[in-house]
TrEMBL record:
Name assigned to this protein: APC family permease
Coiled coil: none
Lineage, opening ranks: Bacteria, Bacillati, Actinomycetota, Actinomycetes, Kitasatosporales
InterPro entries in UniProt: AA/rel_permease1, APC_K+_Transporter
Regions crossing the membrane: 57-78, 99-120, 140-160, 172-191, 213-236, 257-279, 322-346, 367-387, 393-414, 435-456, 462-480
Comp. bias (Pro residues): 668-680
Stored PANTHER family: POTASSIUM TRANSPORTER KIMA
Membrane topology field: Multi-pass membrane protein
Organism field: Streptomyces incanus
Length: 680
C-alpha cells in the first residue's frame, strides 16, 4: 500500500512508449543541471579571484567569456554525437566504439562519479540558497539535504514522465525569474540607476601569499577561477545519453533540446556575470576577510544570486527576492534530477555490457531503472552526510569526471569521422563530415586543455578523491566483467550429449530430528522422485531423544531405513555433511538428493524460534558437488491465518503477466530451513 502511494501503480511493458518525452518536458528533465549552474558558476569564479583581494576582479568578464566559448564548443560537439549515435549512451558509446572498451570504461566510471557529485553539489547549493533567505535553518543543513534527496528519489521512482511534469514548472519559473532579474538590473544600469549589492561596501583582505600576484602565480589564479567557472558545463552530456527517452524523431528532438539548453544557459550565465560586475558583488570564502564588518563571526554571506535579487528588487524582504530565492533553491535541488536520469541510464548500459550487476539493467514497476535510482540516492546521501552538505568542500570533487568524458568522446568522434570519410564519396556528405570533424577536433583540444587545468588546480584541494573514486570504480567494473565472463565460460555447453547424461544413481536422504507431520511429508515427497535408494538420517547427540525416535519409527512401521550418525561432541552440521560427502565420494557419478522439512511461519519473529540450526547445514550442503538440496515446506497455523495480498512476481510487469499470476505465501523472503536434524 505504501509503495503504491509513493510510486503509483505498476505499468505494463507495452506502456513504455507512453513515457517518452516531448521537448518541453525533456528540457527540465535533462537540462536542469547546466541551467541551474547559473546560480553558482559566477560565484565560484568570484570566490577564487577574491583570494587576491579586489584587485583581480577585472578578470571576471574575460573568464566568463572563456566559459561561454567552451560551452558553445561542447554543445556543438554533442550535437554531432547525437546525430552519429542516436541510440543513446552518449560519451560511453562513442568512446567504446571508437577508442576501445577500456577507454569507454574510463568514461563510464568518470560519468558515474560525476553524476553522484551532481546530486550532492546541486542539493547542497539549493540548501545554501534556502539558508540565505532563512538563516535560522542553518543548523538543519544536512537534514534538509538528505530529505531533498529522498524526495527526488521517490519522484523519480514514479517515472520519467511524471517527474518531468513536476520539475517543469520550477525550471521555467527559474529561467523566467533570472531573465527578468538580469533584464531589470541591466536596464537600471543603462538608465543610470545601477543596482548595488549589499556586499559592495566591504573590502576584501587577500589571503597570505596571494597579494601582488604576477607571472605564473597570476596565471594559476586565473586558470583556477576558470576551472571553477566550468561548473556551468556540468550535465551538458546528459541529453546525448538519454536520446531513447525522447519522442520520435528522437535524434532531431534531442539535438533541438540540446541547442535550446545551450542558448538559455549562455544567456543566463552572461547576464548574471555582467550583473554581478555592475552591482559590485564582493564574496569570499571566509567572511572574516571582509573589511568593515563589526562582527565577522556573526555575519552570514548571502549567495551571489541572492545579493543580486535583493539589489535589483529592493531589498531582502521584497517579493522579487523571495521569488528568486525560492526558484533558485528549487532548480538547484531539482538539478539533481539530471543525474537521476543520467546515472540509471548509463548504469543500465554498463550492466547490459556486464560491467555492473545485471540488476541495474532491470526496469521497475514504473518502467524506470529503479535499482540505479536507489544506488545513486544512497551514495549521494552518504556523500552529503560525510561532507556536512558543504558546497565549498564538495565543489572541488566536481567537474573532473565530466571533462574526462568530454575529451575522450570528442577524440572518439574524430576517429568516427575519419572512418566515415574513407568510404564516403558524395561531395556534400564529405563536406558535412569534414565540418563535423573540425568541430570535434576543436572540442577535443579545448576540453583536453580544460581537463589538465582542472586537474592541476583542483587536485590537492580534494579532486584527488574524485580521481581515486573513478579509478576504484574502473577496477571494480573490470573485475565484475571478468567474473561474468568466467561464469559464462564455465556454464557454456561444449558437448550436449556428455553434459546431459543422467546420473548413474539418485540417492535420496531425508534429514529428520523427530517423527512429526513435516517429516512424513518430506519422506513422501522423496519417494515421489523414485530414487534408487532412500534413507532417513538423524544425528544423535542425546540418547534419550534417539531412543524415543527409534520407538516412534518402529511403532508407525516407517518403511524407510533410519541411519543414525554419532556425534560425541554434540555437533549437528559436521557429522551430517561428512556423511553426505562420503556417499558422494563412493559414487562419483551418483547424485545425492537431500530433503529437508521447512517450516513456513506467518510472523517475522517466529523465525527466531524455528528454522535456525538447519540453515547452517543447508548452506554447507549447497557447496558440496553432486548434492542437491530440496526444502519441503510445511505451513504452520500462523502462516495459514495471516492474509497475504495477491502481488506481482518480481519482473512480472516487464514480462506482461497479469497481477494474479503469483500469490505470495509469506510477507517475508523465503524462510530459512527448519531445525536441523537431531534433538533440539
Amino acid at each position: 500500500m505504501l509503495k503504491r502511494l509513493v510510486i503509483g501503480r505498476a505499468m505494463r511493458s507495452e506502456e513504455l512508449s507512453e513515457t517518452l518525452l516531448p521537448k518541453r518536458l525533456a528540457l527540465p528533465i535533462f537540462a536542469s543541471d547546466p541551467l541551474s549552474s547559473v546560480a553558482y558558476a559566477t560565484q565560484e569564479i568570484l570566490l577564487v579571484l577574491t583570494l587576491g583581494g579586489l584587485a583581480y576582479l577585472h578578470f571576471t568578464p574575460w573568464i566568463g567569456a572563456a566559459v561561454v566559448a567552451l560551452m558553445t564548443v561542447v554543445v556543438l560537439s554533442y550535437r554531432q554525437v547525437i546525430n552519429a549515435y542516436p541510440s543513446g549512451g552518449g560519451s560511453y558509446t562513442v568512446v567504446s566504439t571508437n577508442l576501445g572498451p577500456s577507454a569507454g570504461l574510463v568514461v563510464g566510471a568518470s560519468l558515474l562519479v560525476d553524476y553522484v557529485m551532481t546530486v550532492a553539489v546541486s542539493v547542497a547549493s539549493g540548501v545554501d540558497n534556502i539558508i540565505s533567505a532563512l538563516p535560522s535553518l542553518a543548523d538543519y543543513r544536512v537534514l534538509m539535504a538528505l530529505g531533498f534527496v529522498a524526495l527526488l528519489t521517490a519522484m523519480n521512482l514514479r517515472g520519467v514522465r511524471e517527474s518531468g511534469r513536476l520539475f517543469a514548472s520550477p525550471t521555467y519559473l527559474f529561467i523566467g525569474g533570472v531573465l527578468i532579474m538580469v533584464g531589470t538590473g541591466l536596464l537600471r544600469y543603462v538608465l543610470g540607476d545601477a543596482p548595488v549589492a549589499e556586499s559592495a561596501r566591504y573590502g576584501i583582505t587577500p589571503t597570505p601569499g596571494d597579494t601582488d600576484l604576477a607571472g605564473l602565480a597570476l596565471v594559476m589564479l586565473v586558470l583556477r577561477a576558470f576551472s571553477s567557472g566550468c561548473t556551468a558545463l556540468t550535465g551538458v552530456e546528459a541529453i546525448s545519453n538519454g536520446v531513447p527517452a525522447f519522442r520520435k524523431p528522437k535524434p532531431k528532438n534531442a539535438a533541438s533540446t540540446l541547442a535550446a539548453m545551450g542558448i538559455i544557459a549562455v544567456v543566463m550565465f552572461v547576464g548574471v556575470t555582467a550583473l554581478a560586475i555592475v552591482a559590485k558583488v564582493h564574496i569570499t570564502d571566509d567572511s572574516c576577510r571582509l573589511t568593515g564588518l563589526a562582527d565577522c563571526g556573526a555575519y552570514t554571506q548571502r549567495t551571489v544570486i541572492a545579493q543580486l535579487a535583493a539589489a535589483v528588487f529592493g531589498g531582502n524582504n521584497s517579493f522579487g527576492f523571495y521569488y528568486i530565492q525560492t526558484a533558485t533553491a528549487l532548480i538547484l535541488i531539482l538539478a539533481a534530477n539530471t543525474a537521476f536520469n543520467g546515472f540509471p541510464l548509463l548504469s543500465s548500459i554498463l550492466a547490459q555490457h556486464r560491467y555492473l550487476p545485471h540488476q541495474l539493467h532491470s526496469r521497475g514497476d514504473r518502467l524506470v531503472f529503479s535499482n540505479g535510482i536507489l544506488a545513486l540516492a544512497v551514495v549521494a546521501g552518504l556523500l552529503l552526510y560525510g561532507f556536512k552538505a558543504n558546497v565549498t568542500s564538495l565543489i572541488h570533487l566536481y567537474i573532473l569526471g565530466v571533462f574526462t568524458s568530454f575529451t575522450l568522446s570528442q577524440t572518439g568522434m574524430i576517429r568516427h569521422w575519419n572512418r566515415a570519410l574513407r568510404t564516403e564519396t558524395d561531395p556534400a556528405s564529405r563536406r558535412r563530415h569534414q565540418l563535423a570533424r573540425v568541430i570535434n577536433t576543436t572540442g577535443a583540444a579545448v576540453t583536453g586543455l580544460v581537463l589538465v587545468i582542472v586537474l592541476a588546480t583542483k587536485f590537492t584541494q580534494g579532486a584527488w578523491l574524485a580521481v581515486l573514486a573513478g579509478v576504484l570504480l574502473w577496477l571494480m567494473m573490470r573485475g565484475i566483467r571478468r567474473q561474468y565472463d568466467r561464469t559464462a565460460a564455465e556454464l557454456a555447453v561444449t558437448d550436449p550429449r556428455q553434459e546431459s547424461t543422467p546420473p548413474s544413481r539418485v540417492l535420496a536422504i531425508v534429514l529428520v530430528s523427530t517423527l512429526h507431520k513435516p517429516t512424513l511429508r518430506a519422506l513422501a515427497y522423496a519417494r515421489a522422485f523414485r530414487p534408487d535408494s532412500l534413507e532417513a538420517v538423524t544425528v544423535a547427540v542425546d540418547q534419550e531423544s534417539l531412543a524415543a525416535l527409534r520407538k516412534q519409527w518402529d511403532d508407525f512401521d516407517i518403511q524407510v531405513p533410519l541411519k543414525v550418525l554419532r556425534s560425541p561432541y554434540r555437533e549437528i552440521t559436521r557429522p551430517a555433511v561428512e556423511y553426505v560427502r562420503s556417499i558422494r565420494r563412493a559414487g562419483s557419478h551418483d547424485v545425492v538428493a537431500v530433503f529437508i522439512p521447512e517450516y513456513v511461519v506467518g510472523y517475522w519473529w517466529e523465525n527466531f524460534l524455528h528454522n535456525q540450526s538447519a540453515l547452517w547445514l543447508k548452506s554447507r550442503l549447497l557447496f558440496t558437488p553432486g548434492v542437491t538440496v530440496t526444502s519441503v515446506p510445511w505451513q504452520l497455523s500462523s502462516a495459514a491465518h495471516v492474509k497475504r495480498p495477491i502481488a506481482r512476481a518480481p519482473g512480472s510487469v516487464r514480462r506482461g503477466e497479469p497481477p494474479n499470476t503469483i500469490r505470495h505465501t509469506t510477507a517475508h523472503p523465503p524462510p530459512a530451513p527448519p531445525d536441523a536434524p537431531g534433538p533440539h
